[in-house]
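Hello again,

I reread your note about wanting to compare the complex against the isolated chains. To keep things tidy I'm splitting this into two emails, and this first one only covers the full assembly. Below are the input lines as submitted, including protein chains and any nucleic acid or small-molecule components. They are followed by the predicted structure of everything together. The single-chain runs will come separately.
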Amino acid sequence: MSMNEQPAWDGRTYYNEPQLRAAPFNNALVGGYIFLAGLSGAAQLLTTVMDATRGPGAASTTRRGRYLAMLAPTVGALCLILDLHTPQRFYNMLRLIKPTSPMSLGSWVLVGFGVTSTATAVLQFAADRLRGSRLRGVARITQVPAALAGAFMSTYTASLLSATSTPLWAAAPKSLAVRFASSAVASAAAALGLGERNDRRRRDLDNLAVAALAVELAATLASEHAERQVGIDDGGKQSAGRAAVPLVLLLTSLLLPGFLGRAVSTLGSVAALGGGLAMRVDTLTEGDTSARQSHRSLRFAQPDNLPRA
Amino acid sequence: MEMHPRVSDHAASDLDRAIADEAELTAGIRIRPGRSYGFFTDTTLCIGCKACEVACKEWNNLPADGIGLTGHSYDNTTALSADSWRHVMFIEAGVRDDLAQPFQSGWLMMSDVCKHCHNAPCLEACPTGALFRTEFDTVVVQQDICNGCGYCVPACPFGVVDISLLDGKAHKCTLCYDRLKGGLEPACAKACPTDSIQFGELDELQERARRREADLHRRGVAGAYIYGAPGTPGATGGLGHLSAFFLLTATPETYNLPRAPTRPANRIAPSLAAGIATVFGLAVAALSLFTRSAER
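Full-complex prediction:
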């Protein structure tokens, strides 16, 4: 009997028992890592762009960016190891490279990013203390592979979630990736902006954060639309506010002069960072819920949701 | 009932050694590496005795879990888990009337198990290589490699793989890998008193299932169909066939099975492309912003 001859699903489930298993992740640890990976990766990328365009004129911003990029290989990696159920075997992540596993690819990206970012940060640290050294020039070279790895760091985590059977993560792989990527750039611009003393550079970073948050907002709405289309929308809470609030604050700050503008910008930057972290943790938690609810997972696995051949 | 001629070689009930190629006596096949093996679970023959659950627990030394009564008919196992690799489901479909189709018409029973998918999502997701494909074309977790990352758990479209909190590793049905190596039929299939669970070479099992489906149609069970063989529900979305497949008489959802599951790894490329495009798009925006104000 082919698929089309099957009687349609009447909506009944097996005693409401889950049809899927939710990921056994600690959502605070893994959500925290995804946030830090995005923040660090995008910070390295933006710093490299800043260094390429402004050179020594933006040395203080570049320095902060390179130190910010150390969050993922240190705190972030620790979060990942702590999340393992057998943490003493963390090094088994590097037994092989598996293209079908974003977690395998991501482990290698994290290693590559960690090595190049650490090298860049150490060179920065040394160059600041050894006058007239050539180390600054070496850092300008090592930052390039670090920035490329940083681009992957800020988005591979979305592929990792989409490459599962959890309905909410699998429903809209592209918009989830756009959300994670834009939120990473927004967090990095916000974090760099918070420490920025130069008004012009701060405005640039705020402008960039506004652009990234606008992309995130659009992708969030696209995700919610996709969830309704595949029939797994839980009709629950709206998540657009996590991008909309910092977006409005930062836009307002760009219109306000002087101290008031800076104050609102600080508020907006903090909201962007908090929103970025909350978005990752909530995505994990809401995904777990969608996996546990068999009426949603069985709906997602209907033939009308099969990819078009 | 046919008996294999070799059966009479082993008349004693207490044997002092293992029988070579025992599967030939119990399942009619010699198990050889390099061939594909699987389960055909014919739910029209299941009587809900749970001998498969018990045999599995005993052979694999699995601890008890979920001690208690659920109130879900006779199903107190509830789901496949790290400690339960066979799970007999009970569906009380309603009061039998004269027009109902024969075979489990009012009460459906099914022994669920890991599907050992052709493109197994758990195996594709596993970052350590702990999950691997054996020489019998089955999917097994190597306990000495698994670091308990848990990524195989949400990857599985059937909710089979589970992390044990007792040892922090992923566990699921091994299709009795150790028994296959020793020439023995898997414990559940050997224990099944009605041959609802049949073990064998995959090609032969699929052929047998098609014959059984046609036979049931002839005998009036119009709703009988195969789940998990090529071209049937369950073997969709790039998953390929399922090495443990089923003959069902109600919708897949009745048995808590997804009608059209998909292969998660197929979502990696579009997702990565969209994400990288976004990052580089915003990097170009940064480049133009920083360049413009540098010129001012």
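For quick reference: Chain B is about 25% helix and 15% strand.

B.
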